[in-house]
Write a structure and sequence with these properties.
Blueprint: H1 12-52, H2 64-88, E1 112-117, E2 130-144, E3 147-160, E4 166-168, H3 183-194, H4 200-209, H5 216-229, H6 231-241, E5 246-257, E6 264-273, E7 283-288, H7 293-300, E8 306-308, H8 316-320, E9 324-326, H9 329-343, H10 346-365, H11 370-398, H12 404-414, H13 416-419, H14 433-449, H15 455-473, H16 478-488
Parallel strand pairs: 1-3, 5-8, 8-9
Antiparallel strand pairs: 2-3, 3-4, 5-6, 6-7
């Protein structure tokens, strides 16, 4: 232990030297203490964030249940590919003779509805009256949520005694030619899988309890074929979406099976939606194997509008190519909320209060026209935004670099131009919350169907969910919409496909 010097024995110069030495030691310890406080604040902040977010494994071995789900996906993919190949086959090539499928008869106890198909005219082309000589009956399985019943399609045979011409009304075109499911049953399977997040093995169990055994492999084939048939609607919807001057964009991870391996890796679902102020109410999902920005550029193509998004770097090249960045104020606020929850930061609390004032203006402007909204923002919101900016700059001067508070302030200050562009245009939203809400159903789906079995199955899910969510946005009941679309689609002209899009669809009388 060092014995302190006797100050009474020291000369004035020695006392001054001792005082300078002690002051230097105090400054060093004070600097070390401030550094420790910053590190402690940073670690406390990060620990609080980790507690708020549940992190799953990036890759995991599949269990028996997951492998059974994979079988459904593979069956659906095979059916989709076979359907596409049939569509691409040359019409001049005679179709190969197919053996009629061996199906079990539908349960006789199910209620049946007879649907008669008779010729429009009971007279032959030669002028004689036709005589009924028999009929053909085919049965299709229909489903009204909770109840199975059978449609008996009775096609009478009529013959002309004079010229011996046989006349018979054709069967209505179906999504699955010569299959047993009606459009109602197909719609139910799709809605249950993609809107209610029920894997096919669960639907198989539900149907069995209702008295009909439908193997999940059959259900998967139906899903795959429907995915192919609905593709023209998605293409038309995407074309309309890219005519909008303002779009929202966001992405979320979705586990996808690694080809040839029993584990998953992180794929991504992208969502592109119109703003709350747009006339078109639509969202289109796109599925990709990675989060690379090229996927966003491929989807947007030549579109050069205003994109509302978070600060993900994948969008940056689009901004250099002519797309205008619109920042998300909710993301900026979230940084301060995390900081406030972690350490009850006074600065964070003040920032939350000031940003809250901007949102109060938006609530008042929600029902106004674009011009009125812009004027209200100019008079009410812009002074608040300018004051908030000055406040952030002033506090940033006092906050040590590297601290959690500095990072929260820097996030907003570095993006201030993008965050406040909404003030110049009444047609722009203040944040990206709309598309985040539209992407939320996928988070629920992940916990049910666990993973996407392939790139094709992920894209098929994206397509069907695009139609389901668009139906909801336009205040349609998804089952009624999808059932009617599947009924009309086989005979719908390509030039009139827009009539089946959710924003144009009219419920049948």
């Amino acid at each position: 232990m060092t014995t302190p010097p006797d100050l009474s024995q020291l000369s004035p110069d020695q006392l001054r030297h001792l005082a300078a030495t002690l002051m230097s030691q105090v400054e060093e310890k004070d600097k070390a203490l401030r550094h420790s406080e910053q590190v402690n604040q940073k670690l406390t902040y990060e620990l609080a964030l980790l507690k708020r977010h549940a992190f799953g494994k990036r890759s995991e071995q599949l269990n028996v249940l997951q492998i059974s789900l994979l079988e459904e996906v593979v069956d659906a993919d095979i059916a989709a590919i076979e359907t596409e190949l049939e569509d691409l086959a040359l019409t001049s090539t005679p179709p190969a003779a197919k053996k009629p499928p061996k199906r079990s008869p539908l349960p006789p106890e199910l209620p049946r509805t007879e649907i008669h198909h008779d010729p429009e005219n009971e007279h032959c082309a030669c002028g004689c009256k036709l005589r009924r000589i028999g009929e053909e009956i085919s049965e299709k399985l229909d489903y009204t949520p909770g109840v199975f019943h059978v449609e008996r399609h009775i096609r009478s045979k009529w013959v002309c005694d004079q010229c011996e011409t046989l006349t018979q009304a054709p069967m209505p075109a179906q999504i699955i030619d010569k299959g047993i499911p009606t459009a109602g049953l197909l719609a139910q399977v799709l809605i249950a899988k993609y809107a209610d997040h029920l894997p096919l093995y669960r639907q198989e169990q539900i149907f069995a309890r209702a008295g009909v055994a439908i193997p999940r492999s059959t259900l998967a084939e139906w899903v795959g074929i429907c995915g192919v048939r609905l593709q023209p609607l998605i293409d038309a919807l995407r074309d309309l979406l890219l005519r909008e001057p303002v779009l929202h964009a966001d992405e979320t991870p979705v586990p996808m099976l690694v080809p040839g391996k029993k584990k998953t890796h992180r794929a991504y679902l992208w969502a592109y939606a119109t703003t709350p102020y747009a006339g078109l109410k639509a969202v289109v999902y796109d599925f990709s194997e990675t989060r690379g920005g090229q996927h966003a550029r491929d989807f947007l193509g030549d579109w050069r509008g205003k994109l509302v998004c978070d600060d993900y770097s994948g969008y940056k090249q689009s901004f250099t190519n002519g797309v205008t960045e619109i920042g998300c104020m909710a993301h900026a606020r979230r940084k301060f909320v995390d900081l406030h929850v972690a350490g009850k930061s006074q600065i964070a609390g003040q920032a939350i209060e000031l940003i809250g004032q901007l949102y109060q203006v938006e609530r008042e402007a929600k029902s106004l026209s674009a011009e009125e909204r812009q004027r209200l923002r100019e008079t009410r919101a812009r002074p608040i935004a300018d004051a908030l900016h000055r406040w952030m700059l002033a506090h940033r001067e006092k906050v040590p670099n590297g601290s959690a508070t500095a990072k929260a302030l820097d996030y907003s200050l570095k993006r201030w131009a993008a965050l406040t562009r909404y003030l110049d245009d009444g047609g722009l939203p203040i944040d990206n919350n709309r598309v985040e809400n539209l992407i939320r159903p996928w988070a629920l789906g992940r916990s049910n169907w666990l993973f996407a079995g392939s790139l094709r199955s992920g894209q098929r899910a994206a397509n069907v969910m695009s139609l389901i969510q668009c139906a909801k946005l336009n205040d349609h009941e998804p089952y009624a919409y999808l059932k009617d679309v599947l009924e009309r689609l086989p005979t719908q002209k390509a030039s009139q496909i827009h009539e089946l899009l959710p924003h144009n669809w009219q419920k049948p009388a």
